[in-house]
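User: ok so my PI wants both of these folded by tonight, can you help

Assistant: No problem, let's get them done. Here's the first:
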Amino acid sequence: MRRRQFITLIGGAAAAWPLAARAQQRALPVIGLLVSDSAASFASSIVSFRLGLRDQGYVEGGNLAIEYRYADLAFDRLPSMAADLVRRRVDVIFATGSVRPAVAAKAATSTIPIVFLNGSDPIKLGLVASLGHPGANVTGMTLFGSELSTKRLELLHEMLPKAALIAFLVNPGDPNAESDIANVQEAARLLGVQILLINVNREGDLEAAFERAAEQHADALLTGTDPLFILERLGRLIGLAAQHHMPAILSGAQPVGTYRGQLMSYGYSDDMFRQAGVYAGRILKGERPSDLPVLQPTRFELIINLATAKALGITVPLSLLTRADELIE
């Protein structure tokens, strides 16, 4: 073989190799996971997400790769994390933990499909055009956390009809804060109770928030739907409620029963993270986000902890006992 031919062959092979490598990489779809909380907080939820992907024939480490990005409640990191996933040209972004990852993902790309799961109103926040016809590149699951906060206030009032002042813990930086406050205050007006609004900007403010609620003689306590009040923080919140002898409904927009030491729990029972995995898998197969309607929970569960009620000296009304899906002795 002549030297010129040899060099040409080597040069052609070198030029072709990156193309082949990229083709091979694109043959293995990649999902970018963008979460506002920590990896530990979402460990079980991500297992459910993977199950949904498996239902569609996708297995991480087999015919699918997942790029993980956890903000650990440092919400200002989300835009750069979303931009990084876009630069890596992932095939789908799954944004969850709060509405913030979905907002950051949508700001970063108008072409890569986005599946969200959070407790916000996606229409009001501009994520989708409508629930039935999302439009553009975004769809997912909404839990309407603000509506859950209102329902939890009603249940708390039914449990404690003589309660006149209810402390409501809210993170003012939460995109849902304004609607949460408005909905809860309107429900309180109709119920004839007063709301003591307490801002909680970070996890370190939780103890001071309970102390203020106790100092103001709040009869009970309710939390908003921000990540500060769910997942890993629930255990601490339940401990503070017990310490201050404060009846409380603490769950944010998440599955019921995650921490059962609280007085009551009311929330969705569907495996929404598995559904998110199913949606991601369907999109990988070629379906468009605009054709996949935004899903909502179809069933909610009320769980009452009778042991906690007894410790607080509360007699649970028969109306709640008969409606409860589960009673914890």
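One down. Here's the second:
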Amino acid sequence: MFPLADGSPTDPRRATQLLTRWEFDWSKPGNFTMARLSDERCEYPRIDERRIGLSYRHGYVACNGGPGSDDIFHRGIGHFDHATKQTRVYAAGSRCAVAEPVFVAKNRDAQEGEGYLLTNIFDEDRNASHLAIFDAEQIERGPIARAHLDHRVPVGFHGLWKAA
């Protein structure tokens, strides 16, 4: 997305980000495999962080637009099921830009995927953001709650969830 050294623009299609898995063979440094998981343009992939370093089924992304499209912003949140290879999407609308989704387990003992998905959504018409909270198992139904702010939060803002 950055201009070349002479100031000329780069090819915007090269900015497209796709969900891709890289696997490294730690017993043979330098060996790796790469597999495209979806042809859906997306960014900010996240999982239930309790599964980091372990196998996992559920992944969450910002999608619908974004770098490499005609729209710099992502306009939806996606749930990618690694078992079925299917993506379910909540479309926020043409005037709402979504940020990185963050997964929050319902409780300490919840199964993977049982919980909530939080994301910041910038509403261009209000010129303000809101925190949208989704049922992580049914994101396509839309937010189950919203916390409206009176100002804009940059959609590039990254966050984590830390239980009290």
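The longest strand covers residues 32-47. Residues 40-148 form one domain. Good luck tonight!
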